[in-house]
Design a protein that fits this description.
binds ligand 6R9, Acetyl-coenzyme A synthetase, ATP binding, 30 strands, eight-stranded mixed beta sheet, metal ion binding, ATP-binding, alpha/beta, GMP Synthetase, Chain A, domain 3, disordered C terminus, acetate-CoA ligase activity, single chain
Length: 652
């Protein structure tokens, strides 16, 4: 960023108060902010007490050796016991934990008692395979219940799991296995995606062949198609796990015992193994799930549409919801199989009351058209959530109107793999929301916006988002690389001791926070910092546009010129008139400085599997360069399509 800080460009005046009924019965009320401000550690201590501990802690936070935090030191607990057994012991064994919906329409209903048996058997199986406390287990699995069983079985025996997205290549899996020296790989024969079988086993084999640390490969049978088999190394889940005892006594581990490693590349660079530990992580994900989603375990049906290979799946499919005894939906497939209303059909079928999804999905639904969700009964919904990217105000409004019938609150939740749990979000029974703003740090969380010198910017200003106090579910480091941990997150504002998240943000005149995207993506046009998010939101506020990605490409006169890649809503025609109408629209919404120089109509955008737009690749295209690393792309072919459509630099 230049010396100039990001100014407050877009103006959003719409406000939405919490529904009275929700506010009256909310899990968390406004007084939580004051309580947490008064004594932050006592506040987190109270949240830790929502869990079951085998041994109480001595100290809430040990921050004597920053940036290495220890929370609830001396305390002992078992994460799987907290997510499963204690609910059965309390008499809720018959409550449904997971409604599994396969893409072909097959279903499974898993109660908490079932979950306890499955996790216990899997834990016994891991022990039989020689997995011991502290050993790392790689999980290369799709969205099937065994993925949850496997993760909880690892937690139960204290073997940190490392879940790798099923869509990752063999090479991506191999490097992650090697980095963590995993000795067991758990995978599947295949899974159902877009009406076809995705064949996972050959990838798993190739990764295991190349990774010297893998001793055994445990294979779940999902599709039943024929797969290559290595009799020395491969073991069928149904043969090994099914013959185990369904009794298993969980051992309590230290609060700081590693729970999992999850690799993140963000949108750039070599993947980092983000390390999370047990007590603080579970405390924060359980509390935030309770506070932000207002879950009532007796009546709610929760559905987080994230893949379990993303941190959102770890924290808000597995650990947070299960610790809170949620009943939830787990769906294997894509939103458009066999038709574009599949999500809404699932909501109608299971009477989902709380939906948590990503802006990328919402914009896709906007593109497909309002008539699709309108065909289904979505009246069970009472709360909607968003995560993964800034949500454009227009997408927010569309979500509320078309999915939430104009009555459900929306919680826009900002957080990262590194933060472990939600950090900035409205509280649904408290906050009057503004479309496009994640609003305030949650009770017990402290964040701020600073300029390049680390000075706090006043309301109305913009700059870097920082976290200025340690939080329970914070990462404890990067696996095997303490220096990289310090450099990546703590060196930018070392003097102040702030964690730098890598995101730009602004504070509006009320002090509410608006996320502006990764600072690496921020554009510098004729001496002005302009956020990609704001230009994209201006484009999406035009009725013809469903989604937009904006990059700053090198320009001889202005430093950078704004290039916009635009996906139109269904039925719109791409022509010169629309091209100039969109440029004028941005100019009117934000100002002439933000007017795109070039607009390219496209059918798809390059995205990571968690739905984040990879602007870095679009920038390569806009600057007419060879593409950088595309290994985390969902579909690498979209780049060829986009590159073939874009006029080369200079030919406007
Ligand atoms: C949970 C997750 C983290 C990055 C983060 C930011 C972006 C996530 C957001 C958001 C604006 C939100 N991000 N939620 N930006 N508003 N509500 O996404 O983790 O995959 O590690 O990504 O995602 O840029 O820094 P992760």
């Amino acid at each position: 960023m230049s010396n100039e800080t990001l100014s407050n460009l877009l103006n959003e005046e719409r406000r939405f108060e919490p529904p009275a009924q929700l506010a009256a019965a909310a899990n968390v009320t406004a007084d939580a902010y004051a309580r947490a401000d008064e004594d932050r550690l006592a506040f987190w201590e109270a949240q830790a007490n929502r869990l079951s501990w085998a041994q109480p802690w001595n100290e809430v936070l040990d921050w004597s050796n920053p940036p290495f935090a220890k929370w609830f030191t001396g305390g002992k607990l078992n994460a799987a016991y907290n997510c499963v057994d204690r609910h059965v012991e309390a008499g809720y064994g018959d409550q449904v934990a997971i409604h599994f919906e396969g893409e072909p329409g097959d279903t499974r209903t898993i109660t908490y008692a079932d979950l306890q048996r499955e996790v216990s058997k899997a834990a016994n199986a891991l022990t039989e395979l020689g997995v011991r406390t502290g050993d790392r287990v790689a999980i290369y699995m799709p969205m099937v219940p065994e993925t949850v069983f496997a993760m909880l079985a690892c937690a139960r025996i204290g073997a940190p799991h490392s879940v790798c997205f099923a869509a990752f290549s063999a090479e991506a899996l191999r490097t992650r296995i090697e980095d963590a020296s995993a000795k067991l790989l758990i995978t599947v024969d295949g899974y159902n995606r877009r009406g076809a079988v995705a064949n996972l086993k050959p990838n798993a084999d190739a990764a295991a062949d190349g990774a010297t640390t893998i001793e055994k490969v445990l294979v779940v049978r999902r599709t039943g198609h024929e797969v290559p088999w290595n009799a020395d190394r491969d073991v069928w889940w149904h043969e090994l796990v099914d013959r185990q005892s369904d009794q298993h006594t969980p051992e309590a581990f230290d609060a700081e015992h590693p729970l999992f490693i999850l690799y993140t590349s963000g949108t750039t660079g070599k993947p980092k193994g983000i390390l999370h530990t047990t007590g603080g992580y579970l405390t924060q994900v359980a509390y935030t799930h309770h506070a932000v989603f207002d879950l009532k375990p007796e009546t709610d049906v929760f559905w987080c549409t994230a893949d379990v290979g993303w941190v959102t799946g770890h924290s808000y499919i597995v650990y947070g919801p299960l610790a809170n005894r949620a009943t939830q939906v787990m769906y294997e497939g894509t939103p458009d199989t066999p038709h574009q209303g599949r999500f809404w059909e699932n909501i109608q079928k299971y009477k989902v009351s709380i939906l948590y999804t990503a802006p990328t999905a919402i914009r896709m639904f906007m593109k497909w058209g309002d008539d699709i969700p309108a065909k289904f009964d979505l009246s069970s919904l009472r709360l909607l959530g968003s995560v993964g990217e800034p949500i454009n105000p227009e997408a927010w409004i569309w979500y509320r109107q078309n999915i939430g019938a104009g009555r459900t609150p929306i919680v826009d939740t900002w957080w990262q793999t590194e933060t472990g749990g939600i950090m900035i979000s409205p509280l649904p029974g408290v906050t009057t929301t503004k479309p496009g703003s994640a609003m305030r740090p949650l009770p017990g969380i402290s964040a701020n916006v600073v300029d390049k010198d680390g000075d706090i910017v006043p309301n109305g200003g913009g700059g870097f988002l920082v976290l200025d106090k340690p939080w329970p579910s914070m990462l404890r480091g990067i696996w095997g690389d303490a220096d990289r941990y310090r450099d990546t997150y703590w060196s930018r504002f070392a003097e102040q001791g702030y964690y730098f998240a890598g995101d730009g943000a602004k504070k509006d005149n009320d002090g509410d926070l608006w996320l502006l995207g990764r600072v690496d993506d921020i554009m510098l046009v004729a001496g002005h910092n302009i956020s990609t998010t704001e230009v994209e939101s201006a484009l999406v506020s035009h009725p013809a546009v469903a989604e937009a990605a904006v990059v700053g490409a090198k320009d001889e006169t202005t430093g950078q010129r704004i290039v916009a890649f635009v996906i139109l809503r269904g039925g719109q025609v791409e022509d010169a008139a629309l091209d100039s109408a969109l440029k004028d629209h941005v100019s009117k919404e934000i100002g002439p400085i933000a007017k795109p120089k070039q607009i390219q109509f496209v059918a798809e955008l390059p995205k990571t599997r968690s739905g984040k737009i990879m602007r870095r690749l679009l920038k390569d295209v806009a600057e007419d360069r060879a593409l950088g690393d595309t290994t985390t792309l969902t579909d690498a072919s979209v780049m060829d399509l986009i590159a073939s459509k874009l006029p080369h630099a200079g030919e406007d």
